[in-house]
Design goal:
Chain lengths: 279, 276
């Protein structure tokens, strides 16, 4: 057991502690690392940083669209698969493919499908819809990444929903049927209320995951966050400040602020779920 | 719920089949492109079945990119080491927290719970500087050692062992087995489902990890496949035939593992998350 705690100490607890210290310094990581104390200036700087504003706006937009969409999609797929339908396992395995595929490969496949004479545009043209320069047009580049992530993550949440649905007592539905409830009534009055804690959990998992978007933006834009900052996310910005501009203290401060946002969301959810259980 | 009305089932099947196609098509399209010559891909009339079937793309990536095989080896080596390490260390720590009295036990449990809530980005920069100080940048140990324990799975294993029947261990103690013997000979073999779920998640995570290798590796010889693929893409951005072939080689091991252990994977998802 001792080795586990040593490794945890060196690579988990020490870094977390150091991160809180670094955020107050200017760190110059080349050659002999040098530190200069800067007080709260790293944190204050974030509030007047145009790129922080853009990254936050992109990330917030991304979270606001992706989380509800993937949650609804996951719920719908789970509801359908939970009916007495044949071939459930087959569908479940197919749906799950993108979830086990690496983000690097998914991004490459999507970039190829989204390129100007790729599959997506050919399909859009075929059904008479307008086509886009998905990779180069700042107004749609982030949308392409959104589409991909909804598609890749929804099945994971679908499986969590499916598992939770197994715990709903069959007798509730039988009683409802005797009372003459329709399928729709049962969904609204039994299934959804029962799934509420899981839904909160899935939404928080979704928010935590989407706030940390990095791989797709990086591969998509070769690390630049382009075109025209449209795919710049908070984590990509932290990466740029730390490892391209080599301003590690400022990047550490930004990382702490991101952590704070994520933790507040998590705590709000904890609070909510407790409320649920008391009722 | 039951789908009793005569029109419900066809509609549900249609939705499921459409969604299955939507999921499968990008993979099928990429797989078929990996067997097509570039001319056919860019011609704009290519279909799902290659008109001119060729395996040349697969042969060419090893020629065009002499490091490709090295990247494949690095990925396998790192992912296997990280997985084995996690299985041993997380289980032992989880078992200790569940069963053994030792000084600071409460504190460690509290720390693990607290660490669970800290997102990875916070540790990026300090970890980089620690590895730099140790001289571990660009090395296997730099990639492996920091990810060899995982707070989430320590916690999961603790929950698992707490619900584990004590009688077996007591019997083992009567037979004169020590902690370590009991752990390896009695407890671990019975923890197989939990270990399998853990192994799959850790392996997939390590296999697909992009950010950590990106930060600590600068020498192309040490690249893992995701990084290699990314630089490969940079050089051959219009050679979609090569990129797709390389992507398929990268995806295959993960898919095979998933296909073999599908049952444990689903179990693991519900294990780690479901009962939130």
């Amino acid at each position: 057991m001792a080795p586990t705690f040593v490794i945890m100490g060196v690579f988990l607890i020490l870094p977390i502690t150091l991160a809180m210290v670094f955020a107050f310094y200017r760190i110059q990581p080349l050659g002999d690392v040098s530190y200069t104390f800067r007080g709260w200036r790293n944190f204050l700087r974030a509030f007047s940083d145009e790129r922080v504003r853009i990254a936050l706006k992109n990330t917030a937009e991304y979270v606001a669209i992706v989380v509800p969409t993937q949650t609804l999609l996951a719920l719908s797929l789970a509801l359908i698969l939970n009916t007495q339908i044949k071939g459930k396992n087959f569908f479940r395995i197919i749906f799950f493919l993108p979830t086990v595929t690496s983000s690097a490969v998914l991004t490459l496949i999507f970039m190829w499908i989204c390129n100007s004479n790729g599959l997506l545009n050919r399909f859009l043209a075929f059904v008479g819809l307008p086509t886009y320069n998905w990779l180069g047009d700042p107004s749609v580049a982030l949308k392409a990444i959104m589409l991909m992530n909804i598609w890749a993550t929804a099945p994971l949440f679908m499986v969590i929903y499916l598992a939770a649905m197994q715990d709903i007592p069959e007798t509730l539905y039988e009683a409802a049927t005797l009372d003459g409830a329709s399928t729709w009534d049962k969904l609204i009055y039994i299934t959804l209320p029962f799934l509420q804690p899981v839904t909160f959990f899935i939404i928080v998992m979704g928010i935590v995951g989407t706030f940390q978007l990095f791989d797709q933006s990086y591969i998509f834009s070769r690390g630049s966050g382009g075109p025209n900052n449209s795919t710049l996310t908070v984590v990509l910005l932290i990466y740029q400040y730390a490892f391209r501009i080599l301003d590690m203290g400022y990047a550490a401060a930004l990382a702490l602020m991101l952590a704070l946002i994520i933790m507040v969301v998590t705590l709000v959810q904890r609070f909510w779920i407790k409320e649920e259980k008391f009722n | 719920m039951t789908a009793k009305s005569f029109w419900a089932a066809p509609i549900l099947y249609t939705i499921l089949i459409l969604y299955a196609i939507l999921t499968f098509l990008p993979f099928a399209w990429a797989l078929s492109a990996s067997f097509k010559p570039l001319a056919e891909i860019v011609s704009g009339v290519d279909g799902l079945i290659p008109q001119q079937f060729t395996t040349e793309n697969y042969q060419q990536i090893f020629v065009q990119e002499p490091l490709f095989f090295r990247w494949l080896f690095n990925s396998v080596f790192v992912a296997v080491c990280v997985t084995l390490g996690n299985l041993v260390f997380n289980s032992m720590a989880g078992y200790a927290l569940a069963r053994i009295q030792f000084p600071g036990k409460q504190l460690w449990f509290f720390i693990i719970l607290a660490v669970l809530m800290v997102p990875g980005q916070v540790t990026l920069i300090p970890t980089f500087l620690i590895l730099k100080n140790l001289g571990w940048l660009n090395s296997y140990q730099g990639l492996i050692v920091p990810s060899i324990v995982n707070a989430t799975f320590i916690f999961m294993m603790r929950q698992f062992f707490i619900n584990f029947p004590k009688e077996l261990e007591e019997a083992a103690a009567l037979d004169g087995l020590g902690y370590l013997e009991t752990f390896f000979q009695v407890v671990l073999p019975l923890a197989k489902p939990a270990l399998a779920a853990q192994a799959i998640f850790i392996f997939m995570g390590a296999w697909n990890n992009f950010l950590t290798p990106l930060l600590i590796l600068s020498d192309p010889e040490m690249f893992t496949l995701p990084l290699g693929l990314n630089t490969f893409k940079g050089q051959y951005i219009s050679y979609w035939n090569y990129i797709m072939a390389a992507s398929m080689i990268f995806t295959l091991p993960a898919l095979l593992i998933y296909a073999f252990f599908n049952r444990y994977f689903i179990q693991g998802v519900t294990f780690t998350g479901g009962k939130g």
